[in-house]
Specification:
By secondary structure, this protein is mostly helical. It has helices at 15-42, 51-70, 72-89, 93-113, 126-136.
Length: 137
């Protein structure tokens, strides 16, 4: 007897929207960790010796999150080993879940759906800027 086939579900969300969403979620994730490091530095119990480790943590996270917006697949390719390193480095399961898991999922999404070429971010035309500066002078 033949087995009935179920209809295949279609994804209603276009791939560029998922790619941009993953890039923006990576920026939010990176912004949270940069904010967390800054609050650790500016906290009541922080000393001058805490500044360098916090900056060594926040700088790569900031660079990875900005790279995920500009060049998504390159950012995703760099997020994957960063997630593995974060899972290996931190012994606490909570830190692994908050740091490594989002980086792994977002990196895999960016590698799978992100464009290879650099995204063209919107810019103002130079003619408008030149006309506006002439009008002000």
């Amino acid at each position: 007897m033949r087995r009935p086939r179920l209809p295949k579900p279609r994804i209603a969300v276009p791939e560029p929207l998922i790619s941009w969403g993953a890039s923006l979620l990576t920026a939010v994730w990176g912004g949270f960790w940069v904010w967390f490091a800054l609050m650790h530095i500016l906290g009541d119990d922080a000393s001058a010796a805490d500044i360098i480790p916090a900056l060594l943590f926040a700088t790569p996270v900031l660079i990875l999150s900005l790279l995920a917006i500009a060049t998504p697949r390159l950012g995703g390719l760099l997020l994957l080993p960063a997630a593995v390193f974060g899972a290996w480095f931190f012994d606490d399961p909570g830190a692994r879940m908050l740091l490594a898991t989002p980086a792994l999922l977002l990196g895999a999404t960016l590698v799978w759906l992100g464009p290879w070429k650099r995204r063209a971010l919107p810019r103002l035309p130079r003619r408008r800027i030149a006309r506006a500066s002439k009008d002000l002078a």
